[in-house]
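explain this chain.
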Amino acid sequence: MIRAYKFLMRPTVGQTQALGEMLRDHCSLYNGALQERRDAYRHLSKTSITYGRQSAQLKEIRAFDPERQGRWSFSSQQATLRRLDKAFAAFFRRVKSGQTPGYPRFRGVNWFDTVDFPKDGDGCRWDSTPYDPVTRVRFQGVGHVKVNQHRPVVGKVKTVSVKREGKRWYVILTAEQPEPEPLEPTGAVVGIDMGIANFLADSDGAFVPNPRHARAAAAKLEAAQQALSRFPPVRRDKRTRNHQRAVQRVAALHRRVRRQRLDHAHKTALILVREHDVIAHEDLKIRNMVKAPEPKPNPDHPGSFLPNGAAAKAGLNHSISDAGWGVFLTILHAKAESAGREVIAVDPRNTSRTCPECRHVAKENRPDQATFHCVGCGHQAHADTVGAINVLRAGLVRRDANPA
């Protein structure tokens, strides 16, 4: 299996400058390749430019501009061109499927934060010495950079990436390692119901509170955004140090919220995986759940619209995004795979409207957000717990119908 590792780097001042120049030059290569594709398509011949054709031009590009393009790894530049090719492949896939296409766009220097090295030893070299809290990674054109290796890397390193997040630099490794030993079976099964009031409720009646990290940081984010808005839009080379500090402050607050959300997701998923052999959850279509409601034109007054609940839906969308269900489910599946546990996704329809006692399904069974009161048999419970029980039952039925 392939596992990723992310470590903080401690570059010197000169290495920081060189890393920034590497990102700048790869961004220039990306934008130049994108412009070539656009120009070729606009030509009367409608020429199609492929990755192979652009990769073959790299030798000439490096010879023409040795100061900016010739100093960096050839394979990392090929990876940047592959990145553009994947963007076009995704664009055409969405066009064919009828989705919103999203044509590949030019990248600004501040929006191009990652350079990939497809193979360890080709333009980069991870220090393969035994575990040491301070190790080094070497990049062509940059040198040996110190790395805070907070855990050992198991397996053979396959790829290396450099990532910039604000003022910090990270190295991301992917290592191929043997399948881990599964955890000892516990004999326990559980169903979970994702929510807003509570992050999740399980079929055993337990609840995990929703930390609402973004809401907790809302006041600081609002103040930081107001401070940033005081600076009028100007060209990048005319921006002041105060403007740069305001931008960095906003970015730092968003990074903190993201790290808090990841930490909570990792800890919650770890507890579930350690204590249960089978975990069933709702197969949520989160992208559809956070869509804005369609406008309702007013037939009596052309050009005006009827209320459509957009304000209330926007608040719900913010709460769903703040909960981070998608991140949590991704982490849960990854941890379960490593631990030899089984995770089952089931259809979420009517899970909170079905009585677990008499199986009666009705909208009236759930009079409010937290209460479940069956109109058929009178069974009462917390609505989220009922939903988790029904999710578990559906998951076990699906598991028995599709044995491994």
In short: Residues 2-176 form one domain. The CA atoms of residues 95 and 401 lie 36 Å apart. The chain has a mean pLDDT of 90. The longest strand covers residues 156-165.
